[in-house]
Amino acid sequence: MVPASTSNSVSDPDPDIPAIPRTGILHRRGTNRFDGAGPFDGAGADEARWHAHEGGQFILVESGISHLRTELGAWIIPARRVAWVPPGVRHASKPSGGGIGWVVIAPLELHNLPGAVCVLRASALMIASLQRLTQLTSSDGSMRRLLWEVVAAEVSAAQPEQLEVPMPTAPRLLKAAQSVLTSPTAAASLDKLAARAGMSRRSFARHFRSQTGLPYARWKRAVIAQHALELVAAGHKVSSVALDVGYESVSAFIAMFRRQYGESPRQFLVDNSEKYLAVAQAR
After folding, report:
1. Superfamily for 168-271?
2. Which of 77, 105, 130, 238 is the most exposed place for a label (fewest CB within 10 A)?
3. Main-chain phi, psi angles of 29, to 5 degrees
4. Domain range list for the chain
5. CATH of the structural domain 31-164, one choice from 2.160.10.10, 1.10.630.10, 3.60.15.10, 2.60.120.280
6. For 105-143, what is each residue's pLDDT tens digit?
């Protein structure tokens, strides 16, 4: 897992997401509901914008999928998984595929939580505790403290999921990589990104690999496969998804997906139905 930075010095990663002040910390209520069928409840627009919290943040996905981006990586959060964002880390999140769940802000006094962004395989007790925290009122102080102690203990025992796509840190490479995240396609060639960054192909490839730990071809495959998985889980046909991400041949698309996840989209959803939308039918 790439350590998450708490720096606010990197330029805003996505031109489609309005920037917030570099020193801005978002102060708001401790829990917020989100629903992929509509905007976040309450201060929901803030979650889709780049921001940071004074306290850390849990993203609990009850069904569907949610996306999380920081300046150093991008994550997919499947159903019944919990993402953790440490205090001060600039990030943006949004649901897709009918994603439903909660954003829960941890109290400042809660300690011994991970120092890096991660997606956790949450226990039933952790999920139940976070869900109960969303129902408490201001008079439930002792229950709140107890539940947060339970959450912290469960986090320490939870297993992280490898659902991250690492991002380069150099501004020119970061901007080029963000263009692929915004519109994942097989047509995003190394030559095109090197030209966008104003670098030679060889220099771009070398620096990209040193900063992400992956050759560009593998990184692009991970981005496309992750995006395709979200679309298939949302009920889109495999054939249409293949075209959407730039593959003229469905078999070539399935081969790419199999290299990334070890099996075809249909089989992957069958084998991982507890993670993704139960109503999704890969066709």
Report:
1. Homeodomain-like (1.10.10.60)
2. 238
3. -60, 160
4. 31-164, 168-271
5. 2.60.120.280
6. 999 888 889 999 999 988 999 999 999 999 998 889 899
